[in-house]
Write a structure and sequence with these properties.
By secondary structure, the protein is α+β, with helices and mostly antiparallel strands. The protein is built from 20 helices and 41 strands. The chain is about 25% helix and about 25% strand. This is Coagulation factor 5/8 type domain protein. It comes from Cyclobacterium marinum (strain ATCC 25205 / DSM 745 / LMG 13164 / NCIMB 1802).
Length: about 900
């Protein structure tokens, strides 16, 4: 589908001019009542009363005004433009609006400057959120081909999505995205260059979660350190030529928004909390409690919309009817462009769509601790305000043209349906103003400043050479620097090594030096001497970057940096000391605990005191958790496996499970990485067979220097310990491997005399069958999900799950019919809340009439895996409950495995 919207945009501009000519007084002085559509004004005003179910003892209802009032009419983009109250010199211009886009929630730009728009077309289409998870959302891509500043040419790059969580441009014609209630990130590619994705590949797993759509993973973001961060995930992931790796982090606590500043500090935006999160220290070092990070009255918004139409109700309403406490923040950006005033550069911005404002945040750093404040607190204002109640800023971004873009979802309801239920305060106010039918709009605005023209250079990075991309690392606009670094790393073109080293060592541009450093790190070309040069630099910013980048070398076995980390804990800058301590902690440098205790006793800087105390608390907590995290049997396997790995396996696979570099340039690995490996974390049969019989040849088309020899001379306990350890360290999370399982695999493969070839091994391993729309799923009983509706049994494959309508009964069943026969060999599902089947059996069938029982098991809370040895192609699988119980039977994340 192709759009052409140039004429529509010209009409908008004309309307702005015509309307402004007739304006007799400032728009901000005109009340919403004076802006109503005369036809709607003639209709009877709705009578709204406090619901009978309301808790009148709650302060949210105290003093509520429900007088009949005319409905609040939406405005055209031209008229909305006049409702903005901006700081002197600033202006806002619409660059893309409805009907070309609908319900925009976030934007991103690819290397050629094309803008991807995340359109959440199923979000709150009525007050009850009906159809919220229907596959009607999409990701569109837009271009300003004639370079007039308006994005007039667009395509639907990816359609029919279930509430997508983010869009990440990932090279030419490629994006990453994930849908709601899913656990997988997919890579989508346009292979025939028609503007539509036609290829879908699994990119990463284990990043999703279920629940309310406002409380799921969002904003996967590639940061300067070449790792990707997202909200809600206590992990970070990274693309490498050898696959995706991952590492544990602290809990980001963000909800809708992830961004970074010029020095790679990642900021997360909380939603209901209304404030930025985890901006003091990199999240990879864990969470810190920083009491001084928000200055006095930071949470007070200055809104010009005075409708008291927010979930907290009258308890958080100022006397004039406006919001008195930030409550629903969304979207964020550290402005890093070059076509707005310099005082905005490296400052944090975020939207408060409940208050209809965009806030500019001032950062103040003292003794290693950053505190933040509203830039315009002293004049009781905000960076952007609007009197239009439908202005809903949900994202913002530094654009390729050096300005800032604001995404305006422009709608009546911004809170999700859980907060608009029958009897709620918010629902009552929405109905009073008849705001629930203002949907399917959306505007994207450019923020400009007088006398500073946007940069009209149109990016063409996909067609540029690697050498040209290196030059962009010196660009004054951070967007250009980020994108050039990312594309260089995706290309893995090592021909520019000397140019990057020269820039990192000699450039007068500090930010260019930092980007060159991290580009070398991402290309596997970082050397110890360069890092040492950074560690001794006169700039504390450069020293900090050297400490962080040097962690990669240390993880890959370069212990020669140990002395430097310890030495920099004596630095005169508290921020450098803090970074050195955090690096020593995360790398587990010998005696790091004693080092922390020493600094706690000798360095009085507030930031150093905070970090040393809380890191020592983390160490003590980790020691305590190690005793309880696993069962006694699992702990034995884990500890034994770690001992074996450290003394034997780490030589090839790296001390941190990242692989050991080799080759003249150090850009190759002796053996594949374990961290984040879907092979290692997947079906345990893969790792057990590899350990028992070895593995030679290319793995997924990539050759490694080392050869995995068979380890079958070791006993089953040994094999189980190694397998269990590498499946549960290095950021991995997999089931433990029992020695009895190893014995079974050993017996079944006793006739094998040579090493496995990868393709032959993979062909043997049971694989998860991806659920398809043509699977027929049924059950003897299904719980009601709401009046007049039934929960679809197919929900069993996701986080949402399925359960019986009532308590468990002997003979109740759950069945899956496949469109084509498959050699089913195993099932997996999760259950909890004491709703597991007490006893169950699994049967398979070719025709759905004659059944073969293949397994019988006793259930329990948690993860249940059931496997069998029958090699029969079947179309039907049935799970049957064999006992009564006084709880429902529930399952989620059901997975079917087949050979």
């Amino acid at each position: 589908m192709h759009f052409s919207g140039k004429s529509f945009q010209y009409l908008l501009v004309a309307a702005v001019l015509l309307t402004s000519c007739k304006q007799e007084r400032p728009y901000t002085e005109i009340s919403p009542l004076e802006r109503m559509d005369p036809k709607r004004m003639e209709a009877p005003f709705p009578e709204v009363a406090i619901p009978e179910s309301a808790d009148l003892t709650s302060p949210r209802w105290n003093g509520i005004d429900l007088s009949p009032i005319a409905p609040l009419n939406p405005l055209s983009a031209a008229d909305e433009q006049k409702t903005f109250v901006l700081q002197p010199g600033y202006s806002m211009t619409p660059i893309l609006t409805e009907p070309l886009i609908k319900e925009p929630a976030a934007i991103q730009f690819d290397g050629n400057g094309r803008m991807y728009v995340l359109e959440l077309r199923s979000y709150m289409q009525d007050i009850d959120a009906v159809g919220e998870l229907l596959p009607t959302s999409r990701i569109s891509r837009w271009e300003d081909k004639d370079n007039d500043g308006v994005y007039e040419d667009g395509v639907v790059f990816l359609d029919s999505l279930v509430f997508p969580r983010f869009v990440v441009p990932f090279g030419p014609g490629t994006i990453l995205s994930m849908e709601s209630n899913e656990d997988n990130v997919y890579k989508y590619t346009d292979t025939d260059n028609d503007g539509k994705a036609d290829k879908k590949e699994l990119f990463a797993t284990g990043l999703g979660r279920s629940g309310n759509v406002e409380h799921q993973t969002s904003f996967l973001t590639w940061a300067m350190d070449n790792w990707m961060y997202s909200t809600y995930n206590s992990k970070r992931i990274r693309w490498t030529p050898d696959g995706i790796i991952q590492e544990p982090t602290g809990n980001p606590y963000g909800q809708w928004g992830v961004t970074q500043d010029n020095y790679g500090q990642v900021w997360f935006q909380d939603g209901a909390g209304g404030v930025p999160r985890n901006f003091n220290f990199p999240i990879v070092y864990g969470n810190y409690s920083v009491e001084e990070q928000f200055q006095k009255d930071f949470r007070v918004p200055f809104s010009l919309v005075r409708l008291a139409d927010f979930e907290p109700g009258m308890r958080e309403t100022k006397p004039d009817g406006s919001l008195n406490n930030v409550t629903g923040a969304a979207g964020n950006d550290v402005f890093r462009g070059d076509r707005l005033p310099k005082e905005l550069v490296n400052q944090y911005f975020y939207g408060e769509p409940v208050g209809r404002i965009v806030r500019q945040v001032y950062s103040d750093k003292k003794e290693g601790i950053t505190s933040i404040q509203n830039q315009y607190l002293d004049i009781k204002s905000e960076f952007i305000q609007s009197t239009d109640p439908y202005f809903r800023p949900t994202d913002m971004a530094t654009a390729p043209d050096g300005t800032m873009y604001i995404v305006d979802m422009y709608r009546g309801i911004i809170q999700e349906g859980n907060w608009t239920q029958e009897g709620s305060y918010l629902r009552t106010k929405i109905l009073q103003y008849q705001m629930d039918d203002v949907i399917e709009n959306g505007r994207i605005w450019r923020v400009s400043y007088e006398g500073m023209e946007r940069d009209k250079t149109q990016p063409r990075m996909f067609e540029e050479s690697a050498a040209a991309l290196v030059k962009h690392l010196e660009h004054p606009n951070g967007w250009w620097r980020d994108k050039a670094q990312q594309l260089l790393i995706l290309r893995q073109d090592q021909s520019v090594e000397s140019d990057l080293v020269k820039m990192a060592q000699n450039s007068d541009n500090e930010l260019a030096r930092i980007h060159a450093l991290w580009t070398l790190e991402g290309l596997g070309l970082l050397k110890k001497d360069l890092v040492l040069g950074f560690l001794s630099d006169k700039s504390s910013n450069i020293r900090i970057q050297g400490l962080r980048a040097g962690e990669t070398l240390y993880k890959y076995g370069n212990k020669g940096l140990e002395k430097s980390y310890i030495e920099l804990t004596k630095d005169t800058d508290p921020s450098v000391v803090i970074q050195a301590l955090q690096s020593a902690f995360i790398l587990k440098i010998p005696d790091h605990e004693d080092l922390l205790k020493k600094l706690e006793a000798t360095n009085p800087a507030k930031g150093v005191q905070l970090v040393t105390k809380q890191l020592l608390e983390k160490i003590a907590e980790t020691k305590k958790m190690a005793e309880t995290q696993y069962s006694p049997e699992e702990l034995v396997l884990f500890n034994q496996g770690k001992t074996i790995f450290d003394s034997y396996c780490a030589t090839c696979h790296g001390v941190k499970g990242l692989g050991t570099p080799t080759g003249a340039a150090g850009g190759q690995l002796i053996a594949p990485a374990f961290s984040g490996s879907p092979r290692v974390q997947g079906h345990p049969e893969y790792i057990v067979k590899t350990l028992l019989h070895g593995l030679t040849g290319a793995i997924e088309g990539k050759e490694y220097e080392g050869v995995m020899i068979d380890m079958s001379s070791n006993d089953d306990q040994y094999i189980a310990a190694v397998a269990s350890y590498i499946r549960n360290d290095f950021g991995n999370s997999g089931s433990f491997v029992n020695p009895d399982y190893v014995a079974q695999i050993r017996a079944n493969t006793s006739q094998k005399e040579d090493n496995y070839q990868y393709d032959a091994l993979i062909a043997e391993i049971p694989k998860i069958l991806a659920p398809q729309d043509n699977w027929k799923v049924s059950a003897s009983s299904t719980s009601l999900q709401g009046v007049g509706s039934t929960r679809d049994p197919s929900y069993v494959f996701g986080f949402k799950g399925w359960k019986t309508d009532g308590n468990q009964k002997n003979g109740s069943w759950f069945q899956v019919e496949l469109p084509q026969p498959a050699t089913l060999t195993e099932i997996f599902f999760e259950t909890g809340n004491d709703q597991y089947p007490r006893k169950y059996k699994v049967s398979i069938s070719k025709d759905g009439r004659q059944w073969t029982e293949v397994a019988e098991r006793t259930g329990e809370n948690g993860s249940l895996t059931t496997s069998w040895a029958t090699n029969m192609k079947v179309k039907f699988l049935k799970i049957e409950n064999l006992e009564d119980a006084d709880k429902p039977w529930s399952m989620r994340k059901l997975s079917l495995f087949a050979r």
